[in-house]
Each structure stands twice: as structure tokens, then as C-alpha cells.
Amino acid sequence: MIEELKNVWTEGTDEERKILELALQAIRQKRERKSAYLSGFLGLKGEFIDETKQSYRFELPLTVFMHNSGGAVHGGILATLIDSAMGSLINRSLPPEQYAVTTELKINYLRPGVGERLRAEATFLHRGNTLVVMEGTVYDERNKRVAHGTGSFIVLNRK
Fold it and tell me: What is the count of structural domains for the chain?
């Protein structure tokens, strides 16, 4: 495998080298932040939008990893961005002994994700003790909606 990696690095395309760089980024982020590898591949770095901690945002550069064969962001990546923004918001708002996972996700794709950057934002729609309903939207760099979704999350206790 080491030889194959060396070969891709020396003989591969710029795109292939970028994928290797993203893999290293994912490993670094997993080690430093204990996040999912996918977060590292996507370069997710989030923040609360307001001081009430009711909204959360990711801003990220588009990379070759995210593109479909048509050159736009793959629909699964857009769904992942919405789910990740909503999941980050709920999980960062829970006490340490609890966590939430997605139980339902619905996405509307509105326009192709193209350009240099995307922004995903999430907010609460309903916050029960065990069921939380949220919404999320992905915007392009012109502030146009690319995708919108809603999700339901169940709140669980850590063992």
C-alpha cells in the first residue's frame, strides 16, 4: 500500500493528490477533535450563530471530494451537511450525559451546489425531552439556497 500511495503522489493527478491530502486532514481532525473522519474530509468547522445557541453554522470550501460527475456537489454531501449542522446543534446543546441521533431526514434539492464555498445552517423547530425536530439549509457563496431539509432526532442517555 505504501508503494501505491507513493505512486499516486508522484504520478497521479492534482485531483488524486488532493484526495490524499483530504485523507490526512481527516485523520488529523479525528485525532485532535475526536470527530468523525467524514467531518475531516469535508473540512467541517462549526460555530453557534447567536449567543442563545439556537442556531449553528458550518462554512466550508468545496473540494473535488464533494463533486459528482457533473461537477456540482453530490446530493449525499448536501444531505450530510444539513444532517451534520443539525446534529452538531442538538448535541452541543445537550448535557454531557445525553446525545442525539438522527431518526428521520428529508431533503429538498433546490439548485446545484457550485462555486468555492458552501454554508450550512441549522435551527430548532421543536424541542421535546426525547424528540427534537430541526431544520437546516445549505447556501452557496451568493447566499442562494442550494438545499433545505428537516430532521428528527431522538435524545438518548449515555451508558
Answer: 2
CA 108 to CA 79: how far, in whole Å?
A: 9
Task: Detail the DSSP E strand segments found in the chain.
Answer: 46-48, 55-61, 98-109, 117-127, 131-140, 145-157
The verdict on 62 and 115 lying in the same domain is: yes
Distances, alpha carbon 142 to alpha carbons 48, 115, 133, 136, 145, in Å: 21, 9, 28, 17, 9
| Structure confidence by residue, pLDDT tens digits, 61-106 | 888 888 888 889 999 999 999 999 999 999 999 999 999 999 999 9
Q: Are residues 86 and 106 in the same domain?
A: yes
Q: Residues 44-67: pLDDT tens digits? A: 777 778 777 789 998 888 888 888
* Same domain assignment for residues 126 and 139: yes
